[in-house]
Structure formats: structure tokens, C-alpha cells
Design a protein that fits this description.
- 50% of the residues lie in helices and 23% in strands.
- The chain is built from 7 helices and 7 strands; from the N terminus they run E-E-H-E-H-H-E-H-E-H-H-E-H-E.
- The strands form 2 sheets. The chain has a 5-stranded parallel β-sheet, sandwiched between helices. It has a two-stranded parallel sheet with strand order 1-7.
- Helix 2 crosses helix 3.
- 33% of the residues are buried.
- Bound molecules: adenosine-5'-triphosphate (ATP) and magnesium ion.
- Magnesium ion binds next to helix 1.
């Protein structure tokens, strides 16, 4: 078991390609109400969690809810790939605006494993190339997180580290 320390009031940003296990990790380590997932918000605004054309509206709504939670002093977890710089920049800015510490937890699972999982999922139908792009973005992202303003960065490499991780809130 590895304890990941996370400030009791923080904005926890999960980072990982599709299929890396972000939603599973969030479900295992946080209360359902603490987790805001881009899929859930796509479904809320467009009735379809896979409708990428709804992403702008979905993230707009997600940021709004996250902001209201942080204003209320509630730890909040963002369950989205967050492999793109601009996605993380918006979340760091949101945390700062509410005087809350941004924390990154990276799930770094081999791309092949993620693809094998994706192929088995009835709820995902994107092509192999999408994952390749996300992987390249992820590699670049890992090096940048501290500089981007994440005060705590936890990088979990591989299935064993992901499964062994637990969260320790730090007061
Ligand atoms: P997306 O970005 O597409 O939402 P995700 O990162 O949230 O993906 P999950 O939905 O958590 O990924 O997991 C992807 C698939 O892998 C699911 O079918 C899930 O059941 C499986 N999975 C997740 N974690 C594990 C694990 N530790 N061991 C085995 N299978 C897992
Ligand atoms: Mg997910």
C-alpha cells in the first residue's frame, strides 16, 4: 500500500489516457459526490457521454460546479484525461482563484494495456490513433506538471502502483 498525501482542501486533477483507470481509481478512493467527470457532464449537457462536440459545454459546466465546491471548502476530484496543457491550465487557474492547492495524480499505464481495455469496453468506440495522441500528450505533460503550478504531483507507473495507492488527506 502506498499512501498519497493530498491536502484536505485541494483540487485533485487526475491525468491519464483513456482506459488508464481514472474513473475506477476515483471510485475506489473518493466519495462519488467529490468526483466530477467529463463523461458525466457530457451526458448532462448532451445526453451522450461520448459526444465530443459537447466538450466545451461540458467543461464549462464542470468548471462551474468545481468552483462552487471549492468556494464551499470541499475537496474536488476532476476525472478527465487532462493530458492537454490548456485543460490543466484552466484547472490550475480555478484552484488558484479559490485559494486551493492543485494536486495532480498521474495514472501512467502502458498504451497497449489501455488499448486492450478499450477494445473490450462497450462504452468506447474511438480509434487507436486517438490513444496514440493522448499518450504523446501525456509524456510531455508529466515533465511539465510542477512548472504548471501543481503543488503536489504523484505519478503512478503501471497497474501495481495504481492498485496499491490510497489517499491520505493532510490537514
Ligand atoms: P476514460 O478516460 O475513457 O473514461 P478511464 O481512465 O476512466 O477511461 P476506466 O473506465 O476507469 O478508465 O477503466 C477502463 C477499463 O479498464 C474499464 O473497463 C475498467 O473496468 C478497467 N479497469 C480499470 N482499472 C482496472 C484495474 N485496476 N484492473 C483491471 N481492469 C481495470
Ligand atoms: Mg473514465
Amino acid at each position: 500500500m502506498t499512501e498519497l498525501t493530498v491536502p484536505a482542501l485541494s483540487l485533485v486533477v487526475l491525468v491519464g489516457i483513456s482506459g488508464s483507470g481514472k474513473s475506477t481509481f476515483a471510485q475506489r478512493n473518493f466519495a462519488p459526490s467529490q468526483v466530477l467527470s467529463s463523461d458525466a457532464f457530457r451526458a448532462m449537457v448532451a445526453d451522450d457521454e461520448n459526444d465530443q462536440s459537447a466538450s466545451a459545454a461540458a467543461f464549462d459546466a464542470l468548471h462551474y460546479v468545481a468552483g462552487r465546491r471549492l468556494a464551499g471548502g470541499r475537496l474536488t476530484v476532476i476525472d478527465a484525461t487532462n493530458v492537454q496543457d490548456h485543460a490543466r491550465a484552466g484547472l490550475v487557474a480555478l484552484a488558484r482563484a479559490h485559494d486551493v492547492l492543485p494536486v495532480a495524480i498521474v495514472l501512467d499505464l502502458p498504451e497497449e494495456e489501455c488499448w486492450a481495455r478499450t477494445e473490450r469496453r462497450p462504452d468506447r468506440s474511438f480509434g487507436r490513433g486517438v490513444l496514440g495522441r493522448q499518450s504523446r500528450d501525456l509524456r510531455r505533460s508529466i515533465k511539465r506538471l510542477s512548472r504548471e503550478g501543481f503543488r503536489t504531483v504523484h505519478v503512478l507507473h503501471g497497474l501495481e502502483e495504481i492498485e496499491a495507492a490510497t489517499i491520505r488527506p493532510q490537514r
